[in-house]
Write a structure and sequence with these properties.
The protein is α+β, with helices and mostly antiparallel strands and 239 residues long. The chain has three domains: 2-72, Arc Repressor Mutant, subunit A, CATH 1.10.10; 80-129 and 202-233, Alpha-Beta Plaits; 131-201, Alpha-Beta Plaits, CATH 3.30.70. It contains eight helices and eight strands; from the N terminus they run H-H-H-H-E-E-H-E-E-H-E-E-H-E-H-E. The protein has a four-stranded antiparallel sheet with strand order 3-1-2-8. A four-stranded antiparallel sheet has the order 5-6-4-7, with helices on both faces. Strand 1 and strand 2 (93-100) form a beta hairpin. Helix 2 (19-36) packs antiparallel against helix 3. The radius of gyration is 18 Å and the shape is globular.
Length: 239
């Protein structure tokens, strides 16, 4: 699953280079999740997942606290959760998740981004069947054998454990996200290099240089949209 991690790493690197945009997106997501349930991560598992992911992007505490306080304050600001599916150059597959207070605006912007970058929108279900919801946890300071041992001792099932660069990446079912993290913490892991509840392509594809360049422009255009929270795809962006 190495190339899957590379895709996540590329996305993370891209986001790290645009911190103000990242923080704004996290603020919106934290507000929405906190408002949907309890504004306490200990009783709102969805909020806890978002906050764990926010840590890996170094989102300032002030932004997190502001979003939660806004939810506690009963703000009337509402957002719709939307998912768009489409195709990029050479039949590459893309999924876009958005939070918006104007559905028509967001749909038009996403459609335009696809059209201007050699892509096209698909219908619901046209792409998502080729992706799997996955929990991805990254950590350092442990070997694959050590991670496997303490996960087995904690009776936590995972899909795969892979050494990538200086990290150990654990792939698991989405409902095992917290269990994996708690087992890691019990084994002395204090920080995570990645903590994503995401969707991964069942098979990554490679594109020729010209198509890859166009595809990267498409992804950048989508991620630049204010209402877009996450963009997933099946292209190997590694060298």
């Amino acid at each position: 699953m190495g190339r899957k991690w590379n895709n996540i790493k590329e996305k993370k690197a891209s986001k790290d280079a645009n911190t103000s945009r990242v923080y704004a997106k996290f603020g919106r997501e934290i507000y929405v999740v906190a408002k949907q349930g309890e504004p306490d991560p200990e009783s709102n598992r969805a909020l806890k997942v978002v906050l764990e992911r926010a840590k890996t992007y170094s989102v300032p505490k002030a932004i997190i606290d502001r979003a939660i306080e806004k939810a506690k304050g009963g703000s009337e600001e509402n957002y719709d959760e939307l998912r768009y599916e489409g195709f990029g150059p050479n039949g590459s597959m893309v999924i876009v998740d958005a939070l918006t207070n104007n559905v028509n605006r967001t749909a038009a912007e996403v459609r335009s981004a696809f059209k201007k970058n050699a892509g096209n929108m698909g219908v619901s279900g046209s792409v998502s069947f080729m992706f799997d919801a996955t929990a991805v946890i990254g950590l350092e300071g442990k070997s694959e054998e050590e991670v496997l041992e303490f996960l087995l001792e904690a009776d936590v099932d995972v899909r795969d454990i892979v050494a990538e660069d200086d990290s150990i990446i654990v792939y698991a079912e989405p409902d095992q996200f917290h269990e994996v993290q708690e087992a890691c913490k019990a084994a002395g892991v204090e920080e995570f290099t990645v903590a994503e509840l995401t969707i991964l392509a069942q098979n990554d594809v490679s594109l020729p240089a010209d198509a890859k360049e166009q595809f990267e422009k498409l992804i950048d255009a989508l991620e630049d949209l204010e209402d877009v929270q996450q963009v997933y795809h099946n292209v190997d962006l590694g060298e």
